[in-house]
């Protein structure tokens, strides 16, 4: 069991805040590498896995969050990184970097997403080389936006709504979403840049701000390993990089039409996220609770990331300004609750081969099992038996 990890990041004062604020002391004070206090709010202490102060560089966020999740994804575990926080708190800066910067390996301001791409493909090259061609990786990227409880494909410039479906084999998936194979960081940056441009264009066309939608960049990472017996072991993981809509309470007063619908839907998905987190915390404390994943597209799509089969990290972003103190307090409370959730990540693998190879592998594993333990099924035996069943079904 792995707890959800939380990285708290306090961004520097913006020029606006410097010009506007009478009180320029930081509303949230880092008291150790893992804890903060809000002096204006009874100095309650909040503890996380890591706290990045106003001078925290992009590299430090990658080192503590990105590196771990990427390497676990390559082992076959699902991984998710969420950026949470009120509008303007630095979510997009953390995930992407300053506006318009999508990659550029030499730019120290580039965000977590380009750094994860770079590390992912470095590791893939290393592992493929070490294995002498026995292991091969395949990565597919898709990029989507959840706005007003609809899922839009950001790699398709038409504003087509994609349905969310569930089946036994694939789990929850977005039907019809574009998936592009990416073979290096440049191809991955390109997917990211095109998606972000489409997000911007459709936001302008539909007269809305991107801070009102959630974006999910999803990488499916497959590894094919040839096993000595002639079989192929397939591992598949999903890596989600999620930039959430601004978490501040939407002002419903004097809001009408599209803005009212937007506000209600942002509230709906973020409050569904909050409720899922609360329910999971109670489940973790031994209570019997139903977790309402289906209450919003966001929580249903990312069900595995919350209390399920995933290594999950939340980067909680805050402004340092006293004028944002109440929102900051609510971000700290949210993040502290989320940190209590326990996920159970497992390697997703499967075996493939022709029938005679699979039968031979099952005989070999059964024999091995008899010689060692005498009973029970080893994982390898279960996978090989499943693969044989599937192979036979495919022939009927
Ligand atoms: N750590 C940081 N260092 C320097 N500048 C930052 C940092 N974090 C955020 N900023 C700047 O603050 C501004 C707001 O950040 P950003 O757009 O990332 O916020 P956001 O939380 O994504 O907002 P929204 O919800 O509207 O998308 C931007 O101009 C960004 O460049």
Automatic annotation (TrEMBL):
GO terms for molecular function: ATP binding; microtubule binding; microtubule motor activity. Residues 348-375 form a coiled coil. ATP binds at residues 85-92. Residues 3-341 form the Kinesin motor domain. InterPro entries: KIF15/KIN-12, Kinesin_motor_CS, Kinesin_motor_dom, Kinesin_motor_dom_sf, P-loop_NTPase. Pfam families: Kinesin. It is found in: Cytoplasm, Cytoskeleton. Its main location: cytoplasm. Belongs to the TRAFAC class myosin-kinesin ATPase superfamily. Kinesin family. KIN-12 subfamily. Belongs to the TRAFAC class myosin-kinesin ATPase superfamily. Kinesin family. KIN-5/BimC subfamily. This is Kinesin-like protein. It comes from Mycoemilia scoparia.
